[in-house]
């Protein structure tokens, strides 16, 4: 015999909604029991998230049961659900104690690492999410501690490092072309050139090159050449001399005498004269010729020493540049 549906008791929409929602909560509780994180110290974040989900589920179960009593709808848990709930409550309490211990340890480390008077900078999450569970007990706030970083101390400067930054005026060639401010450590290249690994006019190597160029022989307009010290008599080749001697004489470089030598040598050179008009004779004439030859050798040696000094400066600048970069 078929059941007469006209006599069936019809649930109200509110009662039907309560039953459907309560059934979903039971399914969520079963799912959370299967995804409990392992009790390991490296899974504290997962434990915190699981505790937050379990607090929400247990709180909703209490709300639904209380609402069912008010509406006259019987909402009950099975014996399996009750056993599962007690087990999850114990796991929740154990995880909360571990999180509290971790929070206190992080706070102590922050007080030790930070200077006195500064508050501990330990950010916690989950504030404001406190809810009451089915038994009326307030949820313990679960806060996530963050790692406390120690203050970084600047590395000690090298012995040859310079203190402070200065503005170069005028700027170097690179900064002048880029129309940017030229600044850098004192007695060092500017920051722009150092970052681009380019030579800077304010670097030590550039100053070394400038000093080397300053020690080079000055131009002919700034030095006293042999013509300014007195005209040398023309060199004539007799018929007995060969062309090889004449070639060696013609290829001799003009000797440059740098200003700043002793006054006595300059005075003697200014007294150079033509032997033909000197009025000397005999041994005096021979001695005067030897004197002129000695001065010629002296000027030659002086020129060679100047060339050697220039070569040394160039090699030193090259080695300094290689050693620097």
TrEMBL record:
User: Region (Disordered) spans which residues?
Assistant: 107-165, 211-236
Q: Where is the composition biased (Acidic residues)?
A: 124-138
Q: Basic residues bias located where? A: 144-154
Can you tell which superkingdom this protein's organism belongs to? Eukaryota
Q: What is this protein called?
A: Zn(2)-C6 fungal-type domain-containing protein
Origin organism is: Suillus plorans
